[in-house]
Amino acid sequence: MDEEFDWQQDDEITELVSRFEQLLESGESHFFDVEEFETIIDYYLDIQQNSLTRKAIDWAMEQHPGSRSFKIREARLFTQETKYTQALKILDELDMLEKGNEEFYLAKGEIYSLMDKHEESVEAYKKVLETTERPEEILSNIAYEYESLNDYPNALRYLTKALELRPESEDLIQEIAFFFELTSREEEAIEFFGNFLDRHPYSKFAWFNLGIFYSNLELFEKAVQAYEFAVAIDDEFSSAYFNMANAYTSLQQFHKAISLYEETLKLEKPEAITYCYIGESWENLNDLEKALAYYNRALDLDDKLADAWGGVARIFVRQNMEKTAIKYYEKAIQLAPNQDELKFELAVLFLRNHNLEKANTLFEEVVNHNSHYVEAWLNYSLVLALQDQFQEAIDILTRAHKANASDAKILYRRAGYFYRAGKIEEAFFDIEQAVKMNFDEHQDLLQYLPELLDEPRFVEILDLYKKPNR
Prior knowledge:
Layout: H1 2-26, H2 34-46, H3 50-63, H4 69-80, H5 84-94, H6 102-114, H7 118-129, H8 135-148, H9 152-165, H10 170-182, H11 186-199, H12 204-216, H13 220-233, H14 238-250, H15 254-267, H16 272-284, H17 288-301, H18 306-318, H19 322-335, H20 340-352, H21 356-369, H22 374-385, H23 390-403, H24 408-420, H25 424-437, H26 442-448, H27 456-465
């Protein structure tokens, strides 16, 4: 019934606007009442037809010179034309006459917002709250102004108030989730959506966002449960199936992930990234033939998807077709020059094939872009150590340690290079520090320097820090 009523209203507006334009074209005079003119002007303002808005306002003022609503609409027109000073001048002239007028304060709030005067905009919108019949919309406007002021707690507070009035609103739920994510408050987000779902258990968007925040905290089993509630409410909720598949991937349950990705493909237009993720799942299951087929299907849809080029490269590496793999890696990196994982994989391939110069360049690019990529630091130093440049390798790992002070692997490896360089005291200092941090990782050092087991001093350090019952 409501939809039919809305349709009739739209039909009436179209007929009214059409009649207005015919009269404009013919030059005939015709009387429109105030409400009709307001409808015509609002229609043109909404579609930003500034020329026709001006003609409608002028005609309206001529027929109804005492109506102040047209002056407010003229201020809105000036706002659309970015003539903010003229718009505010009109509103300032009306200020004493329009106390309590919702349209007046809405217009002021909009202008102040566009002028980046967000505090003034908030004050104008708050006055609208006293009388409006659509408070959730005004609360959202206020939240936006607080967001522009980087006042996220107040933005969230007003969005929450709006959501209490419209708990079914996807937009409000998404905005609230955005603020929690922006401020890295995952635990608070989980508490918020949990409380919200206690009151509104059939909100699929709340379950969906709850799943996202569980995933962000790597609580993947709980994320899966949240997504399952979302699809139980709407069994065609493709985004929930997709995210659930990602969670199962993180749980290394690849068959379940594949099944859910396939469900996504049934519900919406296939996307290259979905085929790519299915390919990765088959790759993790060691079914290289299926993995390659899905990576190629991804590239058929989007030949600029770097992850798919990288996936094909990995398949070729595992099939001992390394020259071909290099070409695919290079294409992937060309498409995604900041994707460190692709560069790292190609650098390892170069290292394995003794192309130390190219490996060195790529490892250096990775650590310069991401100083916390420990494996890249270790391999970068190895390139130098393989050329007997032990001091340079030590210098690299000293830089790595500054950025990753709690990682024992760096100290173990640096100890190995000190030992090879004949700097025995420095080596044993690093060994003792590393053993304190992580005893088990001394096995990595022994792979590089097995002769350390013949060193009494090394054995003593291990005995000293070895935990009982180890």
